[in-house]
Task: structure prediction
Amino acid sequence: MIDMAIAKLVRYAEQTGLIAPEDHTWAVNTLLEALHLDSYTEQTLEDTAIDLPAVLDELLDDAHARGVMTENSIVYRDLFDTALMGRLTPPPREVIAKFRALYAEDPIRATDWYYRFSQDTNYIRRDRIAKDMQWKTQTAYGEIDITINLSKPEKDPKAIAAARNLPASAYPQCQLCHANEGYAGRVNHPARQNHRIIPITIANKPWFMQYSPYVYYNEHCIVFNAAHTPMKIDRDCFCKLLDFVGQFPHYFVGSNADLPIVGGSILAHDHFQGGRYTFAMETAPIKTPLTFADFPEVRAGIVKWPMSVIRLTCADPDKLIELGDRILTAWRGYTDEAAMILSETDGVPHNTITPIARRRGTDYELDLVLRNNLTTEEHPLGLYHPHAELHHIKKENIGLIEVMGLAVLPARLKQELAVLAEKMVKGEDLRADPLTESHADWAEGFASEVTAENAMDVIQREVGKVFATVLEHAGVYKDTEAFLRFVETVGGKA
Result:
């Protein structure tokens, strides 16, 4: 009975604090409007937790059966259930006021509430996040994280065809712009009626904070410029990163690099990613301590990490900004042909940095990951990019999250690795199946260890080793001596 599903959705909104008891009748009626229904009988419910995905599925199935929802694929279902949740989501002014009141007491209380709220509205879909495959692998660089992300829905052919026929739209300009808040969406742009963003000020400029709907790690937040302006790694970027962790000392924050291949997927809108999670890179020790003559207050060193990282730590963030800017400026124009570091070819720049900021006790810390997007005949996708022999596991760009030690692997691997395990146990020909053919050479290297009991454990361990090699490929320096040649150009020494 559809009235029961409506009653459960309203009860869920009351239980989670999205609406107050006084909003009950209004909530029922606004859902009736969205569902194209004109009558309702009040229901008696037990006082138990509501299974939100199950309730929404029931409402969507009914809406499709009645022709209210014309298509029944995941794209159309997401558009429709977001519209329903949007009806029950408080307006921005209330969300902002609540966040600010909690922040005045304690920044942790504010983000705890906002993260839970972003899940309660179903903007972050808990049921999909729970489907992600996640594990850890011990490597020479510490325990790294692996995830096969399954929470991002794949578009179906009908939605792709419908999107192709839509007129071009420049609103919102991108999926980060603040114009997404409350937007109804379309088949080629996600609905965001249940999305609320928090205005913040960083380095005296207006910015916003939100959480990623796909949550690759705990409290995975996105901090984005109020203006649709391109990514840029510069002195101001360091100022903004360190200002943010000054305001939210329990979070780290970092930026993707600002060049193709080594950058993120959205270079057109200035943004950072942060959160409340300890990555392997953060716990990695200093391999080679460094000193910079002009900055005696700054503790520095090359990090024991597969990528090329200079770590700077100081109680005064201004010192980190000054030294970080010097390192960035030097790196932008640095060439060392013996180490295959070219700052540019034919006027095209190659050198940039992936910066990460955090607090370490009362100190501020800045990790500067040196990046280079040079391509060669042998490595057309990037010399400092996963090489071809690793593409069966990871072919995509190595962005901020991967740099810190969390592999975000493609969804195809869930099925491919399951089939691989099954075939290895049975001793079947891996090259005879398109799902396992690309993994055959790699899998033969550890086939002797595989049993029926441990097959997936062994495969997951080996995937972790591949990711460690991916990071080694992305590292611009393979030896400390060449690394120190660069450090010396900025007045540093080991």
